Every structure is written in structure tokens, then in C-alpha cells.
């Protein structure tokens, strides 16, 4: 793994923790729930090799970033991007994310097209509203129950879930890091997925006015939503990596970085 410089910027909800490479084409990376910026540790090196400058942000309440004082939405999470760019003296950047982070990246592009050179949506939330809102409520009901159990059983259960998702494609040390990333959250455990399923990604995708790409993989549990997003906006290319799952940035880091670099190379 390649270590980046760690720093803080002041934001609307307190301090924002982020990691940044020293030079290259600025590329903001926004993580999925329930993780933080270290989700992208294995793609930093291949991105840098392509001349990109990864800037990975801990969204509010995740990692070392301060949480909101209220139940946040995707629009709240998106408010941390510009303060980080401003702190680094960056006028425009490519902004991308994975799963929940993809929604945050989209909202940033819709709200601030003058600051977003291009958008990478690593997963989308394109599905019928009734299905999306039902998932919001079911996730919240289940995740609100997450908390310390005798013998650390809550950590064991979380490890077992992530190990099942990885299906033997991610080593145990990295899965252990997934667990610690989830447990370091500064906000309630359920905030991230609740915000994701509460977000109208369809409306946001329709409103996009910046160059964009949809980056998915055939083994992702939400791959069909990526296909639906491309059908919604056929002008936005869909790049599908083979296999993998929700941990594609660890399962195929080089291919993931290559796809983003190819997209950036097309931007004016």
C-alpha cells in the first residue's frame, strides 16, 4: 500500500480528514459506507503511476472526520469536497466514488459543475423509488441494532459478513481492516446506508451536465443498477470490469485504476 499525506480541512460540520498525493491530475475519491478513505489504499499506487493525484476524503462521521449533528443526507456528505479542494488550492478536479461515495460524487457534480472536471460513478442507485425506500428502512432497522456484544461478537459477525462478500478473493488481513474501518466511525453506524437509499440518484443523473462515466463490475450486487443508469443516460459510458464484488478496488486495483485513467484522458 502507498501512504499519502494526511491532513485536515475545516468544513461545515467540523474537521474533515483526508489523504492526498503530492502531484498529478486531481482525483477526489469518496468511499462507500461503512468504511473510510483507506478503502482506496490499494489503488493509490496505480492511480499515481497514471499521473493522477488521488485525494481520498473521510466523509462526515466516518474515519477521522467529524460527524453531523443531525441525520445526514448525501447532500450533507457532498459539502466536504469543496473545503478540501480549497485547502489544497485546487480549482477543479475529477470527482469519483464507490457505492455511497458515488452518490456523493454525483451530488457534488450537480451542485458544483464549475469545480468538477469529470465524474466517476462507481456504482449507482437507479431503481424504483418504492424498492429504494423500502431498502432504506430495512437497512436502518437492521443497522440501528448494531453495537457491542459480549466477547466482541459484533466484530465477529461483521467479519463473517465481509468474508462472505469477498468469497475468498480478499485476504483475511484486509478483511480485518474492513472491520476496523467500520468500527472507527464517529457517527451512528446506520447513517451511511440510510443516506444512500434516501437519495434520488435518478434525478441527479438526469441533471448531470459534466463529463461522466459509470464504472461497475459484473459481480457487484448493484451491477444491474449501473446498467439501468446507462439506459437512463446512454450518453454516459458504462465500463464493466469482470467478476469481483463490492470490494472491486481490492480485487482488481490495476484494472479499476486503468479504467479511471482512460476516462480522465478523454477529458478536455
TrEMBL record:
Signal peptide: none
Keywords, alphabetical: Hydrolase
Listed GO CC annotations: membrane
Species this protein is from: Sphingomonas pokkalii
Keyword check for Ribosomal protein: no
Species lineage: Bacteria, Pseudomonadati, Pseudomonadota, Alphaproteobacteria, Sphingomonadales
Database matches in InterPro entries: AB_hydrolase_1, AB_hydrolase_fold, AB_hydrolase_sf
Domain AB hydrolase-1: 26-165
SUPFAM superfamilies: alpha/beta-Hydrolases (SSF53474)
Transmembrane segments: none
Protein name: Alpha/beta hydrolase
An example Gene Ontology molecular-function term: hydrolase activity
